[in-house]
Amino acid sequence: MPSPRYHREIPARFRLEAGKCAGCGRVSYPARKVCPACRGQEMEQVKLSPRGTVVTSTVIHVPPDDFLNEAPYAMAVVETAEGARFMTQVVDCDPSTVLPGMEVDLEFRLIRKEGKSGILCYGHKGVPGSV
Amino acid sequence: MVARTGNRTLFQATHGPLPLSQRGEKRQNARSVSFGSISGTLGYPVRVPGDTTFVKRSWHQEVEMPGIVGYGAFIPRNRIKSEEIARQWGKDPATIQRGLLLKEKSVPGLDEDTITISVAAGRGALARAGIDPQKVGALYIGSESHPYAVKPSGTVVLEALGLGPEIHVADFEFACKAGTEAMSVALAMVESGRVEYAMGIGADTSQGAPNDALEFSASAGGAAYIFGREKLLAEFLHTYSYTSDTPDFWRREGEFYPRHGGRFTGEPAYFHHVMSATQGILDRSGHKPEDFRYVVLHMPNGKFPLAAGKRMGFTQKQMETGWVVNLMGNSYSGSSPTGLAAILDVADPGDLILITSFGSGAGSDSFIMKATELLPERQGLAPTVRSMLDNPRKYLTYGEYAKLREKIILND
Amino acid sequence: MREVAIVGSGMTKFGELWDMSLRDLFVEAALGAMKSAGVDSIDSIYIGNMSAGQFVGQEHLGPLMADHLGVAGVPATRVESACASGGMALRSAYLEVASGMSDLVLASGVEKMNDGADVTGVLATASDQEQEVYYGVTFPGLYALIARAHMEKYGTTEEDMSWVSVKAHRNGAKNPHAQFRRVMSLEDVMTSSMVAEPLRLLHCSPVTDGGAALLLCPLDRAHEFTDRPVKILASGAATSTLALADRADPADLDVVDLSGKRAYEMAGLTPEDIDVAEVHDCFAIAEICCYEALGFVERGKGKDAAREGITDLGGRIPVNVSGGLKSKGHPVGATGIAQAVTIIEQLRGEGGEVQVEGANIGLAQNLGGSGASSVVHIFQGV
């Protein structure tokens, strides 16, 4: 990932900053300019709580080259208490146990490396919930 | 304050400057002493500060002492048992366990490094401190496994923790001592009044070469401490450092694994510095070993801290709470800070706590602190070290471990 | 709008075509379409192509292909909508003829996937780069997430999906253009290697090189070029969210639903009127979702259709008689055109071993991404 793009995405990736529509209250992660629910354009910044529930999941056995050594790994669509949904990996557990309904905490992790000498790209992954 | 004595350089940190009149006296008084078993063991005189009287800062009574306002720790969830490593190299597991007192160690995932451990520990510290992250004016991270050779770990960590941008940040390295080094400087920044709060972190994903004794211990983890002046969880009473140039363990630029001097890492390095620093802070504070409820000494393996502690008159009971090495290994810069976190997790108000780190190269930092009335209500606000040691975890085979530690040569 | 007919079609063999380049594939398919209509000049070209830039490092396909077809000078445009690029190219060609702007327009699709690129990585760029690819998702992974949601919501099983693959291979075995002309048993499918749980290798379409082309003209000129023209009754297209996580319900392909409704409405038809259909079975779960979204079965009943033979040859609504993307192959940009080629053959009675008896109205549905774009065409033999 080129550094300028990565830099732009830091607030969302590092701090789970999202946008909440002032009109209808829909939370979009990452924040958008236009609310996908009501097309409102007035957004306030909110932070997602660092936990959520798995909506649907899979275990990737055939990964892209950048993730070759991590396979098999679980990926899930996670929904937070604010109603925002996003995709991420769920780690630190047997990937086959990552199923819809699972509660996860979101931890700060290294997501990908830009090869051997490129930048390191961080973000949040799910881990089995602590409560 | 620097006292040059022969080819050794002794740094002594105390709270507040010594009165000028005493500085000169102190330098003149530098002399050889022998105490306890150290001189006997090493067979040469050990130079320690001549002035063994703790000098109280003049404003001690009026101003609340700085101390810890928040702390947090993180230990990766993968483990490998020492017997699994022993089996790989044809060694006798029982001998290893008996010799090093290491049962298992934590192993970072491919997605864990000093930065992610620092963020997790830092979040715990912020949760326990309950302060506005924007008020943290300094962030220091000590590690010998910063993911970048050039580009700070601290910048990633501060963004993730919501600190800054009005903040002073630095990455430290001093082998396994970099964590207490970061704590020391963070404390000093608060003490000097430069910043309201400062965070010091020690974290590592330690390297140890395959089929090296270090492989049984080199692990991952870390702890973060926020220092401030109000609403302390532990009040800092004394600090003391002891440093010399002792090449017991090193890693040259560009090398993947560290090298070490075998048995030279023992008496002249670990024991000499840990015991000198500990004795130094005891002398300067006027405390005796029995005054402390808890003691943690840097844990390169299970045996060294227990042996050093015993030689200095500390009991097993004082040491066992912070002695986390048998289950998590040596997380280098994270080792003694994580042991301290384990102590703060259970300490009661009024408990006196002593920590001495050790970093190869070599040096030790010693801190004495006292738990406050506020500590118990904050202990449960973030995961405890014990819960992380006991958490559901995965035991790795040596092959899985070698993959996670990137010890296998792969194609690009 | 003018009524539009298809008067010529051509396609290459689908498969790992090591001796053919991207331009070779296009030229062979395009010449096939032009020859079948007996024309040697055209007014305009649309080329459906997902990612020549990443697969072979070649962008700017319009002039390249026009030049190599020997018609340099005509307008030529590449159309991209990921795996729906071919269907969208057909739609573009249809609109150009219907508008009266041009008479003879070539709608083509081409993809050269086997040329050394990281195919998994390239395909993943059709999903949300910032929100999905960043975290390591793959296309099979995205459809696996859909599959698991479908299983949760409707009780669909791995075996239900496997029957779709069995049917695909049974049909594809009879298709001379197909990449995998092999019958597969249920056991073959259910014991194939895991790609993204719960999807196994034989629930996934392969990596394919191929090209396909259609020649369009106004219906009132169709008989100048062929005795058996096929009329385009409708073209319906739609979009949904690019990121699966933003989808209202990951179990349903709402984009297929919407594009289908638009096509049915334009044609004045209902799902019951369709005699034969080609739908986008990039993964077995997608075909099941398409059955439901296109109204071939009730929602939630898609899982039973293949097992019960409803969508088999001789069933109530035969789907993917070509073998589908699964068996025929899935050169992504070419797929939408190839689906239409199969339907044209069916409506002309040229379906050979897999001819659906009396087929008069056919439907082709082409899907892009993990259900982010879809285009449905309905055809009638005239």
- Give me the Rg of chain A, rounded: 16 Å
Q: What amount of the residues of chain C lies in strands?
A: 15-25%
Number of helices of chain C: 13
Domains counted in the coordinates of chain C: how many?
A: 2
β-strand percent of chain A reads 35-45%
Total number of β-strand segments of chain A? 8
| Rg over alpha carbons of chain C | 19 Å
Q: N-to-C terminal Cα separation of chain C, in Å?
A: 18 Å
- Given the structure, what is the number of helices of chain A? 2
The largest beta-sheet of chain A arranges its strands as 6-5-4-7-8
Going by CATH, the homologous superfamily of the largest domain in chain C would be: Thiolase/Chalcone synthase
Distance between the termini of chain A: 35 Å
Mean pLDDT of chain C: 97
Rough shape of chain C?
A: globular
- CATH fold name of the largest domain in chain C: Peroxisomal Thiolase, Chain A, domain 1
The major pleated sheet of chain C works out as: 9 strands, mixed
If classified by CATH, what would the architecture of the largest domain in chain C be? 3-Layer(aba) Sandwich
Low-confidence stretches of chain C: none
Structure classification of chain A: mainly beta
Present the secondary structure layout:
The complex is a heterotrimer of chains A (131), B (412) and C (382).
Chain A: H1 3-8, H2 10-15, E1 17-21, E2 27-28, E3 43-47, E4 51-60, E5 73-80, E6 85-90, E7 103-113, E8 120-128
Antiparallel strand pairs in A: 1-2, 1-3, 4-5, 4-7, 5-6, 7-8
Chain B: E1 2-5, E2 8-11, H1 20-29, E3 31-33, H2 38-42, E4 46-48, E5 67-74, E6 78-81, H3 82-88, H4 93-100, E7 104-107, H5 114-129, E8 136-142, H6 153-161, E9 168-172, H7 178-191, E10 197-205, E11 220-228, E12 234-246, E13 249-250, E14 259-260, H8 266-285, E15 294-297, H9 303-312, H10 316-320, H11 325-328, H12 335-344, E16 352-356, E17 361-371, H13 375-379, H14 385-390, E18 394-395, H15 398-404
Parallel strand pairs in B: 6-18, 8-9, 8-10, 15-16
Antiparallel strand pairs in B: 1-2, 3-4, 5-11, 5-12, 6-7, 10-11, 12-17, 13-14, 16-17
Helix pairs in contact in B: 3-4, 5-6, 8-9
Chain C: E1 4-11, H1 22-37, E2 44-48, H2 52-55, H3 61-68, E3 76-79, H4 85-98, E4 105-111, H5 119-124, H6 139-154, H7 158-172, H8 186-190, E5 194-197, E6 199-200, E7 210-218, E8 230-239, H9 254-267, E9 276-278, H10 284-293, H11 302-305, H12 324-328, H13 332-347, E10 361-368, E11 373-381
Parallel strand pairs in C: 2-3, 2-4, 9-10
Antiparallel strand pairs in C: 1-7, 1-8, 4-7, 5-6, 8-11, 10-11
Helix pairs in contact in C: 4-13, 7-10
